[in-house]
Amino acid sequence: MEKLLVFISLIYQANALVRPDGVGRLPALGWSSWNAYECDINASVILSAAEQVVELGLKDLSYEYINIDDCWSVKTHRDPTTNRMIPDPERFPGGIAGVASQIHDLGLKVGIYSSAGETTCAGYPASLGYEDIDAETFAEWGIDYLKYDDCGVPSTWADPYTSCIPDTANNAGPFPNGTCPNLANPAPKGYNWDSSPSATRFRRMRDALEAQNQDRVILYSLCNWGNAAVNTWAADVGNSWRVSGDISPGRGEVGAERVRIATWERIAEIANEMSFLVRDYAGFWGWPDADMLEVGNGEGDMTVAENRAHFALWAGMRSPLLIGTRLETIKEEHLAILKNPTLLTFHQDPHTNRPAYPYKWGHNADYTFDAAHPAEYWSGPSAALDGTLVLMLNSENVTSTRTAVWGEVPELRDAQRGHEEGYAFEVVDGWTGEEFGCVEGGLEVELEAHDMAVLVVGGAC
Ligand SMILES: *[C@@H]1O[C@H](CO)[C@@H](O)[C@H](O)[C@H]1NC(C)=O
Ligand SMILES: *[C@@H]1O[C@H](CO)[C@@H](O)[C@H](O)[C@H]1NC(C)=O
Ligand SMILES: *[C@@H]1O[C@H](CO)[C@@H](O)[C@H](O)[C@H]1NC(C)=O
């Protein structure tokens, strides 16, 4: 019996991208420049974000990566002699190595961005064909994290088929059996996406980064937006992989101001897609990535309740949590969401190898694909919380109640078996820390439109 268990765990490890020093074992926590600044970045923007992460107490809560997204290099060319990318000398006068060293001095880590194509999404030099030299350069600069995008792909590297990304109503599942009814040019049955041109491009950079492990371990974050059936092959290629397109279309005008567009509709779409994925694909060393956070963005578009639900869903799914807002001007109520200790503890639990996933859909029948009304009832065990996390979403646009029934929650059902009246459990409100005490049978919570309850259900009582 014991031998069998060892054997199984070896198989599991062979399919995961196990890195030295535990890098990538847990989903990443940090900040990224894109959602807040897009291309308007420079050394002071990046350093100031790092300083804010320290000053606001986020570092103490394990936020650690400060990620420089697209637009950091000279746009027109590589160094003609070394073939290396060149940090933009005006934006980064001390180079990327200079910023990296200052970020390291703050006790934080630093991320960089490139693409598995000839150019990045904003048209800067990218790494296809230069994987080794770029990985070596990043390692030398002191980089700890690489976000690897999917822009600038030449036609010679295009995939022969499209795969199913069941994120919007147009692409509606059913999932996970993998059929997108409206898909143009689907792969024939049995097509092996693991050897597709996409998988090959992303694997090349994995190998280049692995070759640097002696000098520098760089977390590898894939960003091919769910293409090429990435969930089926990414676990041994990257430590996380994006499952879908961007969380928001970018920036727009509100009055005279240029602001980030972030909407609940897109949050719900991604949560709906993830609800069908995380059970099968999330675990240590490999995490489906729902995209960077919009908490604090979408001025006028997202209520505080929606910000709360967005964060609770992302933390519960154990997606990487990369703050995407300007920390200098963040509102207290948004900061409090990002600092929620219950959700962060669940997200970073070193002992529990799974996320929360739906135990009931609620608004819809179970397993219904509905981009506007994702699964509402989620649960997951947590050694770090010494209990079960129960999340309840009100996906409707009016105030409504949701009830956690202990007998419906898989993690609690066993404890309850044989007790006709149902067991009682110690329950704490994960948002406020308020103790509900010993609660019998279940708990009803009133929720604003698009708000989410967070309950920590502890020992039987
Ligand atoms: C850096 O970028 C920020 C935001 O785009 C800008 O306000 C600031 O003036 C820039 N600083 C330097 C030194 O270029
Ligand atoms: C996929 O799953 C859905 C819902 O479970 C089911 O209705 C459909 O027949 C399945 N399709 C295939 C091809 O298995
Ligand atoms: C609220 O939801 C209902 C039912 O789904 C819909 O008919 C209505 O347009 C929505 N209202 C708003 C303000 O979004």
TrEMBL record:
Signal sequence range: 1-16
Enzyme Commission number: 3.2.1.22
Domain Alpha galactosidase C-terminal: 374-456
Claim: NAD is one of the keywords in the record: no
UniProtKB keywords: Disulfide bond, Glycosidase, Hydrolase, Signal
Single annotated GO MF: alpha-galactosidase activity
GO biological process, one term: carbohydrate metabolic process
Keyword Lyase: no
Name of the molecule in the record: Alpha-galactosidase
Pfam families hit by this protein: Melibiase_2, Melibiase_C
Reactions performed catalytically: Hydrolysis of terminal, non-reducing alpha-D-galactose residues in alpha-D-galactosides, including galactose oligosaccharides, galactomannans and galactolipids
Homology family: Belongs to the glycosyl hydrolase 27 family.
